[in-house]
Amino acid sequence: MPPQPPAPPVFYTFKSNDILVDSLANFVVKAQRDAVDKRGKFTIALSRGSLAANLRGLVGQENVQWDKWEVFFCDEAAVPLSSEDSNYHSNYLSFLSTVPIPPSQIHTIDPSLLGDLEELADEYEKQLIGHFAASNAARYPTFDMILLGMGPDGETASLFPGHELLTERDAWVSYIEDAPRGPKARITMTLPVLTHCYRAVFVVTGTEKAPMLHKILDEPEAGLPCSRVRPAAPGLVFWFADTEAASETAYPPTKFRWIDNQKEAEEAFEAARKRKERRVKEEESGEEESGPIRL
Ligand SMILES: O=C(O)[C@H](O)[C@@H](O)[C@H](O)[C@H](O)COP(=O)(O)O
């Protein structure tokens, strides 16, 4: 059978940051239940930046099987784990320190290798191989969920536009010495890993993200790193945005609900597209009024 093309991105928008945070928490917990039922554990990768704060809804959630979580990091700065530039550190402060995931299931870089970026990346890749080799016969690891942010130039993890790292096909983890923003020296999961998961989930909030979110979702042909995260079947990509971040985007938003497979993602996209088309027509013909009409 020829490989199926990736399903269209599922785009959820929320009226406020609090609603997004709660919905995201419900979504992660549902994905966790699903993964534990099917595979006995929940393997998740986290990103640096505002994401950690948007995971606050997970704290205090009931029925979470924290002992089944295996936590990795999409990218990491070559800095001590106590540095505020560290992905681990930012997620630890606002999320990981507040939930009972066994420390041995939180997989950080080896800080004794900070002096050698290549070794740092190789060692992290070995951790992934050690974790996935037994359960996964595929060429790349299959995370249950990869949580991502969108940077100002359309970068994600430490994959920056126009950088040669974007063409990496073999390594699972690679390194970058010249990141154009933030800490220069980092390691990062490569694009094949990000596009090989069950669920890639971007979380974007705030007005300053609006122009870039428009580019990523409405002009994917520009090939910016975030647009390239299109997991192959059975994988899916989801976008969680607040109304501010979504304000310049024409891509049709889907009503928030659980979407489990390619077919459901395609149907949701088609329904959203039609709903949006109808709305535009109504607005054009002036049928939609926002308040009482005096006759
Ligand atoms: O190391 C990094 O810089 C991140 O991995 C990066 O890809 C981040 O996720 C985005 O820049 C979004 O960051 P914000 O959500 O904080 O804007």
Automatic annotation (TrEMBL):
Record domain Glucosamine/galactosamine-6-phosphate isomerase: where: 17-233
Region of interest called Disordered, as start-end residue ranges on this chain: 269-295
Biological process annotations from GO: carbohydrate metabolic process; pentose-phosphate shunt
Lineage: Eukaryota, Fungi, Dikarya, Basidiomycota, Agaricomycotina
Name of the protein this chain belongs to: 6-phosphogluconolactonase
Enzyme class of the recorded protein, top EC level: hydrolase
Metabolic or biological pathway: Carbohydrate degradation; pentose phosphate pathway; D-ribulose 5-phosphate from D-glucose 6-phosphate (oxidative stage): step 2/3
Keywords attached to this entry: Hydrolase
EC number(s) on file: 3.1.1.31
Family to which the UniProt record says this protein belongs: Belongs to the glucosamine/galactosamine-6-phosphate isomerase family. 6-phosphogluconolactonase subfamily.
Bias (Acidic residues): 284-295
Domain of life of the source: Eukaryota
GO molecular function, one term: 6-phosphogluconolactonase activity
Function summary: Hydrolysis of 6-phosphogluconolactone to 6-phosphogluconate.
Catalytic activity, reaction form: 6-phospho-D-glucono-1,5-lactone + H2O = 6-phospho-D-gluconate + H(+)
Alphabetized PANTHER family for the sequence: 6-PHOSPHOGLUCONOLACTONASE
